[in-house]
Amino acid sequence: MKPNLLVLLDFDGTLTSIRLDPKKVKLSKSMYTTLEKLVHNKIQVTIISSRPYSFLKQQLPSCVKILGSKGNSLNKLKKFSKQRKHIFRILYCTVKKFPLTTVQLSPCGAEIHFRKNQSLTLSKVMTEVCRVFDTQPVKIIAGRKTVEVIPLGLANKQEIVKKIIKTWQGKIMFIGDDDSDAEAAVEIMKQKGNLAFLVKTKERKITPKEVIKLTGIQEVQKTLKQLL
Ligand SMILES: [Mg+2]
Fold first, then answer.
1. What is the pLDDT of residue 158?
2. In the predicted model, what is the mean pLDDT of residues 33-49?
3. CA separation (Å) from 23 to 10, 17, 41, 56, 211?
4. Highest CATH level, class, for 75-151
5. CATH number attached to the domain at 5-72+155-225
6. What pLDDT shows up at residue 3?
7. With 60 as the cut, is the pLDDT of residue 202 above it?
8. How far is ligand 1, taken at its centre, from the CA of residue 176, in Å?
9. What's the gap in Å between 14 CA and the centre of ligand 1?
10. Torsion over CA: 193, 179, 44, 71 (sign)
């Protein structure tokens, strides 16, 4: 038993493989069981993801805590619905420059997907998105083969993680994969006794020295099983 241990996990690319079609992403049975076992061993498990709560709820065991939409409440998301549509329209015009890319509304804003364009790099898309939104009140978030833009008033993962650190009375183990997770990992590691892991990816630009690198989802599961 690990009293007061919080295992804070990202979803896509950390617990599940990245798929060409994000709708087809599915949590494996064995990962599902591992998460269940952690909770049965009195470990608090919280999943923090950009995905909507409804999607995550279908995939995850009911005993884990889910923070969908990066932890932003539904009420808060509603307040920013106009801004989110405005962001979508700007991104829609931006993607026309890049072949094989799509834009869609995300739970917090809108995002460009470029998984189908093998030659397009994250930095190229980021440069263009930053240029287009230069004077707009937004946050630009680099994912793996995605770039998301959200209204300034909505929280990103790093900000929600900061809040969690303030309120959690115990140690935290964090695992993620993309640049937004790397920023959250930096916050986690500021507190003595906490641990942060990042899954290796080609797309991530930031890998803080203090984090532990994992080769893939299998190693994520192995790390979680070591807590049992
Ligand atoms: Mg991820």
1. 95
2. 97
3. 16, 12, 31, 11, 30
4. alpha beta
5. 3.40.50.1000
6. 62
7. yes
8. 6
9. 6
10. positive
